[in-house]
Each structure stands twice: as structure tokens, then as C-alpha cells.
Design brief:
By secondary structure, the chain is mainly beta. It is 0% helix and 24% strand. The strands form two sheets. The protein has a three-stranded antiparallel beta sheet, with no helix packed on it. Strands 3-4 form a two-stranded antiparallel ribbon. Strand 3 and strand 4 form a beta hairpin. The protein is flat, with a radius of gyration of 13 Å.
């Protein structure tokens, strides 16, 4: 059975993308993908579009809504 891509929204943290096979950045360049990919939600990452953990330094608060 083929595994589906899933995205988890972490409270006060990044988006965690699981089982992604291919990823192109905003310029259309193919980027290497690992088993999990964390994407920035706070907007302050120094490695945008990826999360570098900076949200904890700026006390980023955003709760997911179920």
C-alpha cells in the first residue's frame, strides 16, 4: 500500500511534512527530501522556508484549531 503524505501542525511550532517524495522550492529547484521535513510558520527562520527552531526564541504562539 502506498504511503500518503501527511502534514502535522505543531502548537507554537513548524509544519511537519511526513513521507514527502519530491519538493521544489519557490524557484522551482528540486530540493533533497528526508523522511520528515519541517517548514517555518513563525516567519523568522534564518533558513526559510525550513524551520530552524527560532520560534522558541521569539515566543511564537499559534495554536492549531481542531
Amino acid at each position: 500500500m502506498k504511503e500518503k503524505v501527511s502534514i502535522d501542525v505543531l502548537d507554537c511550532g513548524p509544519l511537519v511534512v511526513n513521507r514527502l517524495k519530491k519538493y521544489n522550492n519557490e524557484r522551482g529547484l528540486h530540493l533533497e527530501v528526508k523522511h520528515k521535513l519541517t517548514l517555518c510558520r513563525c516567519g523568522n527562520s534564518k533558513t526559510k522556508q525550513f524551520c530552524d527552531g527560532y520560534q522558541s526564541e521569539i515566543a511564537f504562539v499559534d495554536k492549531k484549531i481542531d
